[in-house]
Specification:
Elements: E1 3-13, E2 18-26, E3 32-39, E4 43-48, E5 55-62, E6 67-71, E7 74-76, H1 83-95, E8 101-109, E9 118-125, E10 142-146, H2 148-157, H3 163-175
Length: 176
């Protein structure tokens, strides 16, 4: 690293993320710089593939954009939680499906310029249907089954704009 942290303070503690303000000094400089970081626990994203090759996506309302978004199932890590455990929980919670065949495809940094969120992306195969266990705000969630080709068309047309979904599908295709 070419800098040192002079001072670091959490200035906001929220339910989803905190905000940290760091005063840093670059090596060889006397000037201080300030960095603001959204501190996020990270999350898990699941690419659930049915035996027929179709992928399960969810349609859900997203408050910040005031619209319904088509995306892969995903959720926030609990403090200290293993990402695989989060993926298993979120798959069941949002879709009702379970799987004993889950592998990690990779990870992404969602917005590395100001946020430390890391999303771990998993592939789930050999799915078994069951009942979902949705949380507050997820009651109206719909399951949509689409082929990779249909998903690609929705990405091209701008119907799918969720970054974690676009990355998850890309990772899945590269792994196949």
């Amino acid at each position: 690293m070419n800098f040192k942290v002079i001072k670091s303070n959490i200035v906001f503690e929220g339910k989803v993320f905190d905000v940290r303000v760091d005063d840093i000094q670059y090596n060889g400089s006397k000037n201080l710089a300030t960095r603001q970081v959204a501190v996020h626990p990270g999350g898990a994203v699941i690419v659930p593939v049915l035996n027929n090759g179709k992928i399960i996506l969810v349609k859900q309302y997203r408050y910040p954009h005031n619209e319904i978004i088509l995306e892969l199932p995903a959720g926030k890590l609990d403090k200290g939680e293993d990402p695989l455990n989060c993926a298993v929980r979120e798959l069941k919670e949002e879709t009702g499906y379970t799987s004993n065949n889950i592998i990690k495809l990779g990870k992404i940094y969602t917005t590395p310029g100001f946020c430390n969120e890391v999303l771990h992306i998993f592939l789930a195969k050999d799915l078994s249907a069951g009942k979902h266990n949705r949380e507050e705000g997820e009651e109206g969630m719909e399951l949509i089954e689409l082929s990779v080709e249909e998903i690609e068309e929705k990405i091209k047309s701008g119907e799918i704009v969720d970054a974690k979904t676009i990355c998850g599908i890309t990772m899945y295709k590269l792994q196949s």
